[in-house]
Every structure is written in structure tokens, then in C-alpha cells.
Amino acid sequence: MSRLIADVIVIGAGIIGCSTAFHLARQKNVRVIVVEKGALASGMTKRSGALIRAHYPHPVEARLALASVNFFRAWKEIVGGTCGWTPTGLVITAGENDAAELRAQVAQLQTLGADTRLLTPADLSELEPAARVDDLALAAYEPAAGFVDPALATQTLAARAKDLGVAFRTGTLVKNIRVQHNRVAGVETNAGPIDALAVVITAGPWSDRLLKPLHAPLGLRAQRAELAFFDRPAALKAGHCAFEDWTTGARFRPHTFGLTMGGLNAPDHESETNPDAFDEGIAPGFIAAVQARLAARLPALAHARYVRGHAGVYDQSADGHAILGHVPQIPGLYVAAGFSGAGLALAPAVGACLSELATEGEASTVDVRALGMDRLAMIAVPSAK
Ligand SMILES: Cc1cc2nc3c(=O)[nH]c(=O)nc-3n(C[C@H](O)[C@H](O)[C@H](O)COP(=O)(O)OP(=O)(O)OC[C@H]3O[C@@H](n4cnc5c(N)ncnc54)[C@H](O)[C@@H]3O)c2cc1C
Predict the structure, then answer these.
(1) Over the stretch 283-336, which tens digit does the pLDDT of each residue have?
(2) What structural domains and CATH numbers belong to the chain?
(3) Residues 6 or more apart from 277 whose CB is under 8 A from it?
(4) Which residue's CA is the nearest one to ligand 1's atom 53?
(5) Which of 3, 121, 190, 194 would you label with 52, given CA atoms 20 to 30 Å apart?
(6) What is the radius of gyration, based on Cα positions, of the chain?
(7) How far apart are CA 188 and CA 198, in angstroms?
(8) Is any ligand 1 atom within 6 A of the Cβ of residue 341?
(9) pLDDT tens column, 165-216
(10) Mean pLDDT across 246-275
(11) Interatomic CA distance for residues 235 and 251, integer angstroms
(12) Cα angle: 233, vertex 93, 320; to 5 degrees
């Protein structure tokens, strides 16, 4: 059997891998193979809350988010088909303690061109009459925010990439990344080797399993995070804004079929979890805990019927920000991971940047050098094979 050869191998067919493949296929005349151990979107992408917004505190992540929001909104023209884009607007709330931080975040986002503005509690009452506001000092409002169907978005990106010539090898595990003469040479899979000039790791919380043998770990922590879905009561049937509620610690948004989906801003499970073997259900106590926080902002949700829930795994980086760029000391190897609970919203622009990095050596969609792996100062010299 002849040996498989690609210009670029993408490891992982979640939203970020499929976005990368789409951009590579669309912009460059390159042979691309995506290798995925499961099915398309079978990792954290299918479990995502998929809230799409520009409100990121890190300026580079905010730039990626801004480019991505526009991409999601213009999906039909750029990709074709649909990503299930549903506009909701996003409200971020702050009490006395974090009002200054929110004010600064809004000011920074405005300088980057984001449509976001500060609201007084009275303004918020007018915008969202169902919301309790007496505990708030301030809010921010981003009208262009919304949500997508994460599996559908991934599948349409993959379908378009396939149309443009990308090969997908699903059900194929990358066992290791091959390094020869101190640069990447391809991958070894359970179906044989594939040679390539460049390899892009978009393997979410599994990324370190591929990087540790190269002595280049990202230091990701895999943390379980849960989402619960509630039947919206009659008072909220028409829907509501999405909320990132700094005051209660909850993040929630309307969902399709008259539901409201909610989770916590930061997972409250400190222990590491195994992304191949974790409890995909809801932990005892989570439903009541999250519902109490949702009802603290939208009191009509206090007795909403719990419908279902699921858990996923955040790939948490050491400083809480995405890791995006080349793997130092292994030319030809690139990575995007560490997005924690916020990678879906960045995926279109991250894919564009990875495509540029892999083919041109630097990203032009957004200057992502500040998100590079070298900031983590964790890299040891890889052993040459
Ligand atoms: C509960 C939850 C809620 C979230 N909510 C939001 C939100 O509201 N907004 C937002 O922006 N983000 C959110 N996120 C984060 C977002 O979903 C992720 O950042 C994003 O889906 C990551 O995409 P990915 O393609 O990097 O990873 P994944 O979707 O995990 O894809 C990685 C793929 O790599 C494959 N893979 C791994 N190792 C190998 C290997 N060795 N060989 C072959 N294939 C391999 C896996 O099977 C997997 O399919 C949430 C995440 C979770 C868990």
C-alpha cells in the first residue's frame, strides 16, 4: 500500500480542526488530511454551550472573537449552509466589586471596534424587564451576540472542506507525531503512517497526550463542566438575552425548543478529569445550584422544569488563555488548545490563523503571537529521532 502524504495534517475534527481544514482548503492549494479518532464534532464541540460573543478580556482573544462573530453571522455566504446562528444579545452584569473591571473591558472592546456598551441597572430593566437588577452596579450589553448549533457548524465546515478536496480520516487515532531531523515529519496512526510538511494539533483536552512525548506539554488541566436545560415558563416564552452573570457566577442563554441553558462561569470541580472516561451526566446538586443562580437574575426561572443536562471537559491553560501558534523547537508543528469554556466563539478566526501559520509561518487574520506557547515557559528541548 502506498504511503499517505499530505502537506498539512490536522489532528482532531472538532470545530477548530474543521475550521482550520476549511481555511486551508479555501485559501491555499494544499493537500490536507484531517485525522479524527472518533466522528466529526465528537469531542467537546458537541457538548458546547456555543455562546458566541466578542466579550473576552484578553485583547487578542477579543480580536479573534470579533472576526469570528462576523464569520458566524455571514455563514451562508462564506461557508454555505447554516451554523444555526440565533441572535440573542449578551448582558454581562457586575456588582460594586467588579464594576471597574467591566468598565475597562467595555472600553478596551470599543477601541477594538466591538459593538458593546455600558448599561445602568435601569437601562437593563428596560432592555430585559424580566431581570432582577437591584443587586447590580453596572451591566454591559453586546447586541450582536448569539449562539450556534456547534455540531451543525462543524459538519458544514467539514462538508465544505471536503468539497474543496480535504480528506477526512475519522475513526483513526494519531498515536504519535513523528519528528525527523528536528522538524515534524508526519504522524503515526492506528491505520499506518502519514507523511506531512506540517502538523496542526487541534485535539482539545487530548492535546497534551500528543505533546508530552515531544517534551513540549501545554500544561492543560482537563476540568469537568456541566450544562443544564430548563423549560422556559410562560413569562419567558418569547425568550430572553444571554447572560454572563459575574454577580451570580452563572452563564445562561435561551436555547432552541423553548429551553434555557445554563452553566457556571467557572467549573467548580477542582480535580482533573479524564476526557476519555468522565461522568457525562449532571452531578447531584448541580441542577438546584445552577437554577438558583439563574433565578437570582431571572426570577421567573425559579420553578422552571429541569429537562436534561450533560457534562463536558474544559481544556484549561495555566493562565486561563488560549494557546495558539507554533510549537517552539519543532518546526512545522502548530497547536491551538487551552480554550477552556470559550473556544467555540473563536473557532472561525483561530482556523484562519492556523491555516496561515501552517502555510506562511505567521498569522495575518489576527496577530496571535501574544497567545504563543513560549509565554508558558514550559518547553524542554525535544529529543531528535
Ligand atoms: C460544557 C461546555 C460548554 C462550553 N460552552 C462554550 C460556550 O458557550 N462558548 C464557547 O465559545 N465555547 C464553549 N465551550 C468551549 C468550546 O466548546 C471548545 O473550546 C471547543 O469546542 C473546542 O473545540 P476543539 O475543536 O478545539 O476541540 P474538540 O471539539 O474537543 O475536538 C478535538 C478532537 O480531537 C480528537 N482527537 C483527540 N486526540 C486525538 C488523536 N490522538 N487522534 C485523532 N483525533 C484525536 C477528539 O476526538 C476530538 O474530536 C464549552 C465547552 C464545554 C465542555
Answers:
(1) 889 999 999 999 999 999 999 999 999 999 999 999 999 999 999 989 999 999
(2) 4-48+150-220+319-376 (3.50.50.60), 86-144+222-313 (3.30.9.10)
(3) none
(4) 312
(5) 121
(6) 21
(7) 14
(8) yes
(9) 999 999 999 999 999 999 999 999 999 999 999 999 999 999 999 999 999 9
(10) 90
(11) 20
(12) 110
The pLDDT of residue 381: 40
pLDDT tier at 269, thresholds 50, 70, 90: low
Strand order across the 117-119 sheet: 117-119, 138-142, 90-94, 242-245, 250-255, 259-264, 221-231, 306-316
Backbone angles phi and psi of 238, in degrees to 5: -70, -5
- Note the pLDDT tens digit of each residue in 41-77: 999 999 999 999 999 999 999 999 999 999 999 999 9
Q: What is the DSSP string of 2-30?
A: PPEEEEEEEE--SHHHHHHHHHHHHHS--
Judged against a pLDDT cut of 80, whether residue 240 lies above it is answered with: yes
Residue 229 grid coordinates: 436545560
202 lines ligand 1 (CB under 6 A): yes
What's the CA-to-centroid distance between 256 and ligand 1, angstroms?
21
Compute the distance between CA of residue 110 and CA of residue 41 in angstroms, rounded to an integer: 33
Euclidean distance between CA atoms 357 and 326, whole angstroms? 8
Residue with cell 499517505: 4
Q: Of all protein residues, whose CA lies closest to atom 37 belonging to ligand 1?
A: 203
CA 223–ligand 1 middle distance (angstroms): 12
